[in-house]
Amino acid sequence: MVGQSELDTQPAAGKTGRRARAFDYGELRLLLLAIIAKQPSHGYELIHEVNERLGGTYKPSPGVLYPALTWLYDRGYAEIDLEKGGRKRYRITDEGNAFLSANKTVIDMLVARVVPKAQGHGKSPQAIVEAMDHLKRALSLRAKMEPVADQVVTRIGEIIHVAANQIEALLNAPTLSAGAAKCVADIVTPNGERFLRRLGSHFQHRTPVVMDENSGHFRMSMGEVRMEVLEGIFRVTLTALNEEKLTEMQHILVRHLEEAAVRETLEVIWQPV
Q1: Cα–Cα distance between 115 and 216 in angstroms, integer?
Q2: 115 neighbors 54 (Cβ within 8 angstroms)
Q3: What is the pLDDT of residue 251?
Q4: Which of 52, 66, 68, 113 is most buried, judging by how many CB atoms fall within 10 Å of its CB?
Q5: How far apart are CA 76 and CA 36, in angstroms?
Q6: Contacts 24+ apart (CB under 8 A), 107-111
Q7: Beta-ladder partners of 240
């Protein structure tokens, strides 16, 4: 295997103290070399390819990409084909192929770490990337204008914390299998809409709650809760990871229903589904 100096992870000159965002400089060089080993490419094509392989989460800037390509060229691992208009197409050399072979273990681990474009790994997180960019732009642009009032800063912080908590709850939500435990309770009450609003309001501070006028649902760490307002009935359906978690969810929901009932007496009878 080639020595550590060949896989130097330090930034190129003029970039002291900074790292490539997705991986270090040595890894980026190896990834670029592996890409042009498959297909000679222009610089902009390599930027797009790296971005696509990482599912849209990272796009190397020209200031990061071209020094890495220059390093490969200077070492004799890549050659440059000049095209019309001065465009440069990078292709691997025999020395570059030997370098890849000598570092096969490293490159295999690196390629396995990024998102292969030919394999399905769920939807691209591009929508998330765009939303994060939107948030950063909104905050940075506003900060460059007149000072923001303290109460506005506090409120912005609260909004971001709530959003972060909801995202965390979504990502940590359990995956319910077809064999999950399930039950339903049809609670006789003329105040179904009130119970829907109160339960939704209570749990939305802990987890994302999706609601409309007559229904709502949310997830807990133990399972899922669905609520429906029917004529004279407030229906609560629970789906849990197992029977033990289902019982725990039943106790939690009954307690909150009793708190929301005030002076109304509720009869909550859970029936298996």
Answers
A1: 35
A2: yes
A3: 95
A4: 68
A5: 14
A6: 107/30, 107/31, 107/34, 110/23, 110/27, 110/30, 110/31, 110/34, 111/31, 111/34
A7: 181, 223
Q: How confident is the model at residue 117 (pLDDT cuts 50, 70, 90)?
A: very low
- What pLDDT score was predicted for residue 35? 92
Other residues' Cβ atoms within 10 Å of the Cβ of residue 262: 9
**130: confidence class by pLDDT, cuts 50, 70, 90:** confident
Q: Which domains does the chain have, with CATH numbers?
A: 4-113 (1.10.10.10), 181-272 (3.30.310.50)
Residues with Cβ within 8 Å of 52's Cβ and at least 6 positions away in sequence, in order, are 117
Sheet-wide strand order for 271-272? 209-211, 215-219, 223-230, 233-240, 181-188, 271-272
Q: What is the pTM of this model?
A: 0.42
Structure confidence at residue 4 as a pLDDT band (50, 70, 90): very low
Q: How confident is the model at residue 186 (pLDDT cuts 50, 70, 90)?
A: very high
Q: In terms of C-beta density within 10 A (0-12 exposed, 13-18 middle, 19 or more buried), how is residue 228 classed?
A: middle
